[in-house]
Amino acid sequence: MENKKALKNFTEAEMKEFMKEIGEKAFRGTQVYSWIYKGAKTFDDMKNIPKSLREKLEEVSYIGNIDIELKLESKDGKTKKYLFLLNDGNIIETVMMDYDSRVTVCVSNQVGCRMGCRFCASTMDGLVRNLEPWEILDQIMKIQEDTGKRVSNLVLMGSGEPLDNYDNTKQFLKIVNDENGLNIGYRHITLSTCGIVPKIYELADLEIPINLAISLHSPYDEKRKEIMPVANKYSIKEILDACRYYIKKTNRRVTFEYSLIKGVNDGKKEAEALASLLKGMLCHVNLIPINEVDERDFKKPDKAFIYKFRDYLEERNIPATVRISMGSDISGACGQLRRKHK
C-alpha cells in the first residue's frame, strides 16, 4: 500500500479532486465518499460505482480499515475500552464513554509516545510511530459500527501527543468535522497536549474553535521537569502565553489538566501557586486523581485532600472540577490495557 492513497484521509472536497486527478468525474468522489461513510469495507461494496472505476481505485488507493482486537465493557455498561489492530500489527487503545446526554470517544493518535511523562503508561515503551489521519478516524467509525451509537464528542487524550503528530492531527480534524462525513462539531472536540508551545500557536492560527486542554500537573517549573520531561524545553510562562494567544484567536476557554499525586503536587502551597498563575485567565482546571500504574510509584491523594484542593481554587474564582473516573474496573490508566495485552 506504500504508494496507494488512503481514501479515509480525504474530506469530500479532496475526494472529488482525487477523482479528477485519476481522470474521473468529480461526482464519483461524492459517491465513493458516501459509500465509505455507509461503512463500505471494499470497493466491491460500492454498488453504483462502475466496475472499471472500482478496479482503478483498487490499483491506486485503499479504503483503510483497522480491526477490533479486544473489547472490554465496564460493569455499569457506560464505558467500553477497545484494542485495535493496525495493518502493520501494532496495537492502539481507544475508550468510549456513554453519558446520558452524549457519547464521547477518546482516541489515540500515536502508537506509544515519546513525551516521557512519569505518571503515564502510554509512554513507557517510547514512540513506535505516528498514526495517519484515517487510522485516528477509523477508531471512531469502528466504535459507531460496533455500538450502533453516534459519537457526538471527541477527545484526543489517548496514547500519543497530538501536537507531536501535528500535520496528521490537523488533517484528521478537518476530516472528522466534514459535513457529509462524521460531522463532529469543532466545539465538541478537545485536544490535550503536554504543552508543545510552537504548535499551540499554529493550532491557534487555524482559528478552529476546538477545546484546548493543557497537561500542567504542577505550578512550578522545577517540579514539572521532574514529572514531565517536556518542561525542560518549554516553561510554564511560555505555555501560558501560548494559551492566552489561543484564547484570543478562538475565544475558547482553555482547560488545565492537573493530575493530583499524593505528596508530590497536592498541597495547599501548590493550590495557592496554581490559583495565582491562572488568575484572570479564561480557563478551567480539571483535577484528575492520578491513575495508579503498576510500574510507577505514584499514589492518589485521599478524597478529602482532592476536594480541599478544588475548593481552594473555587474560592479564588478559578473554576475547577474533579474528573469522575469511568471504567476503572476494566483497566485503569490510558495505555495500561495495551501494555497488558502485549
TrEMBL record:
Instruction: Recite the lineage of the species.
Output: Bacteria, Bacillati, Bacillota, Clostridia, Peptostreptococcales
Which protein, by its recorded name, is this?
Probable dual-specificity RNA methyltransferase RlmN
Please give an example of a GO cellular component term from this record. Answer: cytoplasm
Q: What else is known?
A: Reaction proceeds by a ping-pong mechanism involving intermediate methylation of a conserved cysteine residue.
- Please give the function described in this protein's UniProt entry: Specifically methylates position 2 of adenine 2503 in 23S rRNA and position 2 of adenine 37 in tRNAs.
Where does it live in the cell?
Answer: Cytoplasm
Q: Which family does it belong to?
A: Belongs to the radical SAM superfamily. RlmN family.
Per the database record, which ranges form the Radical SAM core domain? 99-329
Q: Which organism is it from?
A: Peptacetobacter hiranonis (strain DSM 13275 / JCM 10541 / KCTC 15199 / TO-931) (Clostridium hiranonis)
